[in-house]
């Protein structure tokens, strides 16, 4: 098993990565420190078995690592406003370069003015992401599931187009309720909602998406290059 270790900085923080058979793994403590997740052990305990591992990576000794799905799960548990910007940086810059070259490199500012320009660019990216970050934060709080229309909005879709897309992907049935398989996986919750029809009240199924389901849909759409 080939191991290539790379260490790079995110702001004032350190992020250590390990490339194992072309798969990128991240040191869990570093990720949690950046995302301000206080209890690393508790955070990774909530991950699936295939999203985490422990490996001796040299002087650090036995170290908890998480892969890409595990990283995204940790991001969803973070309250830090920059969490989504951090995810975009990882997926658009770090991972592609690691896979291509086996390392990560970036231009280091050589002058004070270059450092100011880099800081301004980073702040601009954060400001652009703020509206989506605020909506994203709602998904990981409270009752832990959201209406389909709200999920469509944060992913950049109209409600009807979102339903159509999920039907085409065989996630929703014709009546826009999820197949039982996806309910069993914990991606959706279906509740009966009373609706007044004239003098009668009928119960109509209302579909909600869990935080786990939002992560699953987001991943599917990115894999199909439907969203970036």
From TrEMBL:
Stretches assigned to the Bro-N domain: 1-102
Stored Pfam families: ANT, Bro-N
Domain of life: Bacteria
InterPro entries in alphabetical order: Ant_C, BRO_N_domain
PANTHER family xrefs: BRO FAMILY PROTEIN (PTHR36180:SF2), DNA-BINDING PROTEIN-RELATED-RELATED (PTHR36180)
Name this polypeptide is given: Phage antirepressor KilAC domain-containing protein
Organism of derivation: Heyndrickxia faecalis
Organism taxonomic ancestry: Bacteria, Bacillati, Bacillota, Bacilli, Bacillales
């Amino acid at each position: 098993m080939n191991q290539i270790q790379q260490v790079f900085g995110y702001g004032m923080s350190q992020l250590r990565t390990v490339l194992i058979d072309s798969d990128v793994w991240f040191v869990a403590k570093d990720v949690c420190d950046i995302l301000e997740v206080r209890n690393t052990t508790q955070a990774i305990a909530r991950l699936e078995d295939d999203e985490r591992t422990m490996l001796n990576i040299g002087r650090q000794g036995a170290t908890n690592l998480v892969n890409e799905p595990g990283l995204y799960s940790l991001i969803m548990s973070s309250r830090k406003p920059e969490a989504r910007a951090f995810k975009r940086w990882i997926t658009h810059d770090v991972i592609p370069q690691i896979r291509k070259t086996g390392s990560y490199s970036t231009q280091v500012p050589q002058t004070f003015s270059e450092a100011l320009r880099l800081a301004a660019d980073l702040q601009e990216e954060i400001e652009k992401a703020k509206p989506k970050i605020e909506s994203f934060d709602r998904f990981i709080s409270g009752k832990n599931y959201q209406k389909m229309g709200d999920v469509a909005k944060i992913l950049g879709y109209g409600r009807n187009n979102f339903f159509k897309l999920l039907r085409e992907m065989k996630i929703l049935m014709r009546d826009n309720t999820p197949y039982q398989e996806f309910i069993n996986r914990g991606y959706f919750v279906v509740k009966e909602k009373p609706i007044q029809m004239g003098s009668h009240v009928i119960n109509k199924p209302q579909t909600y998406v869990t935080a786990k389901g939002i992560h699953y849909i987001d991943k599917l759409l990115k894999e199909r290059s439907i969203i970036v």
